[in-house]
Amino acid sequence: MKLKKLNYILFNVIVVILFFVIVEISIVFLLSKPAYIPSSLISIFREYYMFHDREFIQYKTETAVYDSTLYYKLKPGHFRFSSREFDTDFDVNKLGVRDDEESLDCPFAILLGDSHAMGWGVEQDHTFASIIETELKFSLLNAAVSSYGTAREFKLLDQLNTRCLQYLIVQYCPNDYEENKSFSENNNQLRISSRESYDDICLAHAKSSRYYPFKHLVEISSIAGSRIRGRLKDNNIPEEVAVDEASFFMNVLAHSKSLAEQVKIILFSINSRNSEADFIEGIKKELNKEEYSTYQDRIILLDFSSSLTKNEYYILDDHLNKAGQQVVANTIMEAIQSDISKSKN
């Protein structure tokens, strides 16, 4: 009788384990083929991917290094960076940005920005920086680095050769706000944490993104349970933040030491599947202030709030795909060509 009961328990344990294995394998399949994820589950899968699954290029020892002036840079040389929806090559020059060595030598244009401009998720020649350089046939240095805020981007600009610079292209993202605010509140100085702090973050990131048996099932079930209990993530930017974004950006710009007066600034905002026009409208208001009047004829504002749709982003990842990079490139090229034509007339 005891043996029969033991066999019954063992049978049920095996059935439960097999069920979990099947579910885990099914989740693995959906993560590798996100187009098959049911629409009712896509937000849960995205949250899992974003916060528990994907790796960040800036916190991997194979792809980034600590920097005492900028906290980190990309690791010079060649490496691959991949995730669920892409597998890409990176060629990084000696300065720690995703471009060749020749582009460091007196570029005609420089691109500043974060992961969207760096080209997270696309091959190097498919980034909008590379497309613009190829099509317009001038030297354009892609100096965008994942997760940099505006303050760090302009700190990096101070290290570049800007003697030949005619166009500075700046991609803003709402998550620049905290860094720009800190810069302003710290007497317009950039705070840089220690190497130990960076190493701790890298270790924590490696741990959180590491796989363990049934991780997908456990974490996704937890997220689904939280949704059922009413905990919904609020990704909206607080109203007071949206109001200050433009003013903190202009403060960083005004304290740049590397921009000659003749340099035109092409400015736009790209966010995760939601490039709203609020920031651009805020910049327009800032430019009406007397303290920024000298920038009125220098800044060219671009609005991607209606031209970038869900088709220009990955399904799970919140970055531009190849098509999205092309849309951005086309708009910037039109702006540059139009400005050059006006200058000739």
List keywords for this structure.
elongated, alpha/beta, single chain, Rossmann fold, 345 residues, two-stranded antiparallel ribbon
Q: What proportion of the residues form beta strands (DSSP E)?
A: 5-15%
Distance between the termini: 99 Å
Order of helices and strands: HHEEEEEHHEHEHHHHEHEH
Mean pLDDT: 93
**Helix/strand/pairing category:** alpha/beta
Please, what is the CATH homologous superfamily?
Answer: SGNH hydrolase
Class, according to the CATH hierarchy? Alpha Beta
Q: State the total count of DSSP E strands.
A: 9
* CATH topology tier name: Rossmann fold
Which percent range fits the helix content? 40-55%
Largest sheet strand order: 6-5-7-8-9
Low-confidence stretches: none
Principal-axis shape equals elongated
Number of H/I helices:
11
Set down the secondary structure blueprint.
Layout: H1 2-32, H2 42-53, E1 64-67, E2 71-74, E3 77-83, E4 86-92, E5 109-112, H3 115-118, H4 128-136, E6 140-142, H5 150-157, E7 167-172, H6 177-185, H7 195-209, H8 215-228, H9 239-254, E8 264-269, H10 278-287, E9 299-301, H11 322-344
Parallel strand pairs: 5-6, 5-7, 7-8, 8-9
Antiparallel strand pairs: 1-2, 3-4
Helix pairs in contact: 2-8, 4-11, 6-9, 9-10
Structure description:
The protein has 345 residues and is of the alpha/beta class. It has a single domain (57-195, 237-344), classed as 3-Layer(aba) Sandwich (Rossmann fold), CATH 3.40.50. Helix content is 44%, strand content 13%. The strands form three sheets. Strands 6-5-7-8-9 form a five-stranded parallel sheet, sandwiched between helices. A two-stranded antiparallel sheet has the order 1-2. It has a two-stranded antiparallel ribbon with strand order 3-4. α2 packs across α8 (215-228) and α9 packs across α10.
